Amino acid sequence: MTTDPIDVTDAVPGPDPDRTPLVELDDVSKYYGNIRALEGVSLEVHAGEISCVLGDNGAGKSTLIKIIAGLHQHDAGSFRIEGEDAKLGTPRDALNHGIATVYQDLAVVPLMPVWRNFFLGSEPTKGVGPFKRLDVDLMRETTRAELLRMGIDLRDVDQPIGTLSGGERQCVAIARAVYFGAKVLVLDEPTAALGVKQSGVVLKYVAAARDAGLGVVLITHNPHHAYLVGNRFVLLKRGTMFGSYARDEVTLDELTRQMAGGSELDDLRHELEKR
Amino acid sequence: MTATAPAPAPSPGSPDTKTDERLLKASPLKKLMGRPELGSVVGAVAVFVFFAVAADSFLQATSLATVLYAASTLGIMAVPVALLMIGGEFDLSAGVMVTTSALISSMFSYQMTANVWVGVLVSLIVTLAIGVFNGVMLTRTDPPSFIITLGTFLMLTGMNLGFTKLISGTVSTKSIADMEGFTSAKDVFASTLTIGGVDFKITILWWLGLILVATWILLRTRVGNWIFAVGGGEQAARAVGVPVAATKIGLYMGVAFGAWVSGQHLLFSYDVVQSGEGVGNELIYIIAAVIGGCLITGGYGSAVGAAVGALIFGMVSKGIVFAEWNPDWFKFFLGVMLLLATLLNHWVRKRAEATK
Q1: What's the confidence (pLDDT) of residue B64?
Q2: Which chain B residue shows the shortest CA-CA distance from A124?
Q3: Within an 8 Å CB–CB cutoff, is residue B350 touching chain A?
Q4: Is the CB of residue B282 less than 8 Å from the CB of residue B92?
Q5: How far is the alpha carbon of B343 from chain A, nearest alpha carbon, in Å?
Q6: Which of A3, A184, B246, B294 would you label with B8, given CA atoms 20 to 30 Å apart?
Q7: Which pTM does this prediction carry?
Q8: In the 3-class helix/strand/coil scheme, how is chain A assigned residue by residue?
Q9: A15 CB-contact burial (10 Å; exposed 0-12 / middle 13-18 / buried 19+)
Q10: CA distance readout (Å), B335 to B95, B150, B191, B286, B297
């Protein structure tokens, strides 16, 4: 694996307040019985921008993703796609609205060849009636070409995708979403299980997707990764939103401090120093 | 493997996208090693050679026809069961479902004094409905397929005996051999074709047909892609919009269809059906699929492999008879075959994946 140093910050375009957001969550809440999973969260996703959702474990990031991805429905607030109110019933609904979600561990089927994974759920066919069949040549060649375009040079698209590295698997999933015309890309902790170099590779594809005009929701607990590429930052804590910033309103240090617990961290330091 | 910064798309038709010189490194042998059915084919050749040496009559054409018949009756079920297993699920009700299917055609035709084809059709509908029941129960509720189809297995076992005794008064059905349509139905499900002086049972054709259809579905259709996906990564499949529930229900209907074909063969071969039959066969179908290279956890395997697994079964069960050994040893051979096949498959898969 060879990678160039990460230099994606300077390419971040400025926000344009006049456009309708691709996806807009306004004061959205979600309850599981009497458990408050998410309350009063607002988020905007614009084309060609990356909106980062930061939070510790249990902060409500997964619930937020599931609402955007169509796995769960929100209970209060409004969820608008390109200005229109929406309630997504299934992941298929979300895909039809141009929202593609890439999950950290669940992005691909490890035992299946790369080309079968690439087209999974949207396989091209040729022929009619009982002879309707997968267009295998097209699938193989498109997979190879699209991955090459994203900078992944595969020796053999027939190899099980499980034999690729974690970063490459994420990249295949992102390339797939871009190829299928997603307008909004939701990435769930894409760098969580990866090393430094692999994370860099993935973040570069995230930036490439942004430059291709997609709106990206990047879910992460790593403020450094978020600040490298993000245009907006939403901080979640125990199901509520405790911070929402545009890029020019916050510094990396401030973001890191808030993520690390802010004043709670100071209290902890005092407590530890007393010993 | 190299990853570089996003590069511009290569111009269409550039040699890069067509062929890759590094592909030559994968030798045909490696490609063969990566096939799921390899282990079973090696096993089948070994078993064939073994009985060809051990039993003088094994190589006669009539003996081979007998072996093929035994393999086909099993293989008709092993093929759809393998597809289901690739889809990540089991069906423990498959064995008794065959008997249920036979009982329904027989008793419906007899009680209604209808053309047996009416009974055969009713049986098809009811058997497919049992498959749908298994699939819907599984996809709508949480328990694993092992438990749900164990429930179906017990219910069908009880209903087979209960209804047969209630309707016929005994544990077997009345003969329907003199009823209208019996001869033509027997032609379809249980006739014998004589080729070159050797009698071949028609189930061999059903078996080959099912292998072809199953292989086509698995490797060349969208549904096939979905079957691999729901077995190999259900959540990932769902996330990209694969209809997981429909795929699984379809797989259970495939098993039900196999049970219907098998059941009709049973009925029209003997014209009466014993209501207690079929128990235990579900495991034999699963064993054939596993010997054929299907991964028990789903997501990997082939229809051809399962068919070869059934062929191994046929060779062992009949080979023991031709070798004039005590057939009590059959189960022992089976156990050895299962263990060897599983280990071989495991080893082959590890090597194939490591050397890629």
Answers
A1: 92
A2: B222
A3: no
A4: yes
A5: 19
A6: A184
A7: 0.81
A8: CCCCCCCCHHHCCCCCCCCCCCEEEEEEEEEECCEEEEEEEEEEECCCCEEEEEECCCCCHHHHHHHHHCCCCCCEEEEEECCEECCCCCHHHHHHCCEEEECCCCCCCCCCEHHHHHCCCCCCEECCHHHCEECHHHHHHHHHHHHHHCCEECCCCCCEHHHCCHHHHHHHHHHHHHHCCCCEEEEECCCCCCCHHHHHHHHHHHHHHHHCCCEEEEEECCHHHHHHHCCEEEEEECCEEEEEEEHHHCCHHHHHHHHCCCHHHHHHHHHHHHC
A9: middle
A10: 19, 22, 33, 13, 20
**Are A112 and B299 within 8 A, CB to CB?**
yes
pLDDT digits (tens, 9 = 90+) for B43-73: 889 889 999 999 888 999 999 999 999 999 9
A44-48, A211-215, A271-275, B263-267 — most confident range: B263-267
B349: its two tokens: 């898969």
pLDDT of residue B32: 67
CA distances to A30, A55, A62 from A75, in Å: 5, 21, 16
Question: Which residue has 């005009």 as its token pair?
Answer: A213
**Residue B54, min C-alpha distance to chain A (Å):** 40
Measuring CA to CA, how many Å separate B194 from each of A57, B61, B65, B268?
Answer: 71, 12, 10, 18
The shares of helix, strand and coil residues in chain B, as percent rounded to the nearest 5, are: 75, 5, 25
- For the stretch A74-114, pLDDT in tens is 888 888 888 888 888 888 888 888 888 888 766 688 889 99
Residues 205 through 264 of chain B touching chain A, CB cutoff 8 Å: 216, 220-222, 224-226, 228-229, 232-233, 235-242
Q: Which two tokens mark B338?
A: 């299962």
Interface touch B6/A151, C-beta < 8 Å: yes
